Amino acid sequence: MAGIRDTVGKDKSRLPHVSRRAMLVGATAAGGLALAWSIWPRDYQPNLTAAPDEHIFNAFLKIGDDGHISAIVPQCEMGQGVTTLLPQIMADELGADWRTIAVETAPISPLYTNTLLVDADSTTFTPRTGVPDFVSDVRSWARREWAVRNAVMLTANGSSVQMFEEPCRAAAAQARVLLMMAAARRWDANWEDCDTQDGFVTFGAKKLRFAEVAAAAALLEPPAEPVYRSNSADPLYGKELTRLDLPAKIDGSANYAGDIRLPDMVFAAIRQGPLGATRLKSLDRKAGMQSPGLLHIVQHERWLATVARNWWAANRALDRFAPVFETAGTPVSSDGIDKALKAALKEDAYRIVSEGDVADAMEGRTKIAAEYAVAPALHAPIETRTATAALDGERVRVWVATQAPAQCCAAIARATGLPESMVTLFPMMAGGSFDACLDHSVAVQAAIIARQVRRPVQLAWSRAEEIMRDLPRAPARARMTATLNAAGGIDALVARIAVPSTNHEFRDRLFDNTPADVAQRAAAGKADAAAVEGAANIYAIPHVAVDHCPADIGLPTGRWRGNADSYTAFFTECFIDEMAARGGTDALSYRMAMLGKAPLLARCLLTATSLGGWEGGLSGTTQGLACHSMRGSHIALMATARQSDKGLQVEQLVAVVDAGRLVNPAIARQQIEGGLIFGLAAAVGATTDYEGGVATARKLGQLGLPRLSQCPQILVEFIDSDRDPGALGEIGVPVVAPAIANAMFAATGRRIRRIPLSGHPV
Amino acid sequence: MTRFSVNDRPVEYRMEPETPLLWALRDASNLTGTKYGCGTGECGACTVDIDGEAIRSCMVTIAECEGRFVTTIEGLARDRSHPVQQAWVAEQVPQCGFCQSGMIMAAAALLRTNSNPSDAEIDAAMTNICRCGTYLRIRTAIRLAGRVIRGEERIAAAPPPGIRPADAARAVPALRPARRN
Predict the structure, then answer these.
(1) Are A290 and A358 in a shared domain?
(2) Which domain holds residue A25?
(3) Which tens digit of pLDDT belongs to each residue from A323-335?
(4) CA A546, A549, A554, A555: dihedral to nearest 10 degrees?
């Protein structure tokens, strides 16, 4: 295993040279680069494996004697294009020919920890108010160290490029220097005088393929600091390269967890009963055992699985067993959820954001208030939770899509009693996810079943299980209160938001393997700053307060594409619109007057309204606006919508986005389009009621998801920018519902304060 | 009886006759390109071509397929050369990709009988659900594939599978032809 080592950045105290990249993108980017470099874990060796004719350069790159370059991607591909984006960054820095790039999923290693996400998490989780900076710094350092030790390789928050651009670039720079050093030895030249282009090392008129020097290069010692490629006539960065995963996604050969086929493999279906403290009480064994094709059953304290030669036979057998479940405590219901949210709104809250002095500013002034409510949002990916598991001696091997592979392994180990070293995970592409793959139940269940039946097994949840056992994005309720200044502008704003403490639940489930109902109970009443994220981040309002009223709704909740911003943007952007309408002010100029401190967002808003042909938002028009900033990106959306005999008709969405520099504009466009349509689905459906502890929806068709015929015209424009990349995956989601609601107000004069928008007014 | 053709090959499934075609394809024939998404005919991820018609394979039993000709995504073309597949890559349609086999099969069946469908005809034929939001690109890609089928345009967006290393090395200078021992 020659060449396996991590020689990058051994010296903690030193920072990299000013690079071409830093020159290119300016001083802030240089700061970012230094930070990324200094936090890259250094006390770990890459744990990659290589074919005999492949050479490992570092944790991110291998080069073969034939010239293929394997880019290692430590993130879950769930459609966001990360298996193209990170390789594109590496190929650009390396000077590679794009046609030689292959992709491999990273093994579990602390080298791939998503420290950015852990940092972002630590600052949003606990209110910063009252915490001295040094205490906060120590806490985030400790969290980061903990995350690295536990190899927290999360894929979430659209952070893939933000987190891994610099490590990928540094890894490619290192490999490039090694290739140049090896070539220079052959030419008896200085490596500093060499360059790379299209998969060749060049020195004047001399050229050598990477393939020809890879073996020698991988054995050399690189300089302690990365040396970046100074220029390229034809950079790959910023090009609309075709996604590498597309060929396999048009001929059916792309493999998801359910496409694994192993010798002697059997198929399992499962029934898990209501959410909550549920246990399997009884089943009709006599009727069930007669099911055609049934091979085994596996009974667990909380579920029943059937195993057959095909999945349909296994699933049908479940009906015949007619399992009965027993749930302790009050069963979850939509009524109960609404009551809990309303009650929480009246009780003491945690003040998460406080600027100016709202109490003083509101004293003796006329307060204007409105209440909004948002239903739970389901993930509803087309792929239901699926995992394949097989035994290898006493070891267990699991194929599954996961956004947190190390934690998935730990969960399997804990449930099976095996040490983690006995669990092998094969991370698969996800068929959607939208953060559903942060839950590892299916992987754990598959491992348990495989160990019982002693043969390879593939477990897929039925669509009904997928709906009933989904941990939805939390429902929320808000009371927005404002006082206005003489000009009708907002002087003080209080957003009281009743919502469960989802992120505490999520952490307990992910890191401690706490059952969902137990985690839900434990989180009740805790302050969760991330649960109200995005409530007050853009407008220059002198006095602002955001309160989290923790609601104990009994329903376990989870992370979801857009997270808290998906409801906080609805509350804020609708309420702003109400204030504008109240004074008869144009919703555009009303917003612009308060965007003095947010020039990037203001530019998006002006561009969107100019592209979309904003008519002033007067009543009788059908146009509505919303804008939002999150995770380094900004978006403005102009929606055109009307009420027709077929119900709510969304005709057009015009979005303008500033997400900094774009690695691949074509993929960025896909992400925004996709986010908008995901937001549209959530605005009109993607939800369920709950009754007696279970979701009332059982079929996909009951979720009101839009189809092609309901899809509005969509126009997406990006603002040219040299800023560091912002996140793209979620930014499209939060603005859709408020823009449509505001358009509906303009069209009908009726203010919709509830999501889904097609529901009844609050 | 459960004898019929799958991708131009005669097959007899020794399974319960009421087994939905989807599970015979996936679990007996290992044709895993056809996906399970709902089992109730709503998502369309399991769409296959039966005698020229786009059919949700979760909704027909293998008994009902007796004597018919079933084509799955694996049988649409041997080398990704079908105009719909090429157009799908040219327009960068897929994101997660899970629903795309069904989408492509539905689009191919539509274009077989109508190579120049109107918006309304596309809407009526493409009732599959995609959660990544590829809908608008699907519309554009169907139009492009229609132009290719009508001979108005040519595209070469996706490479065929199984390119031999020697051929790849001829086209890409950075690759080194395999050494002969």
Answers:
(1) no
(2) 20-113+151-250
(3) 999 999 999 999 9
(4) 0
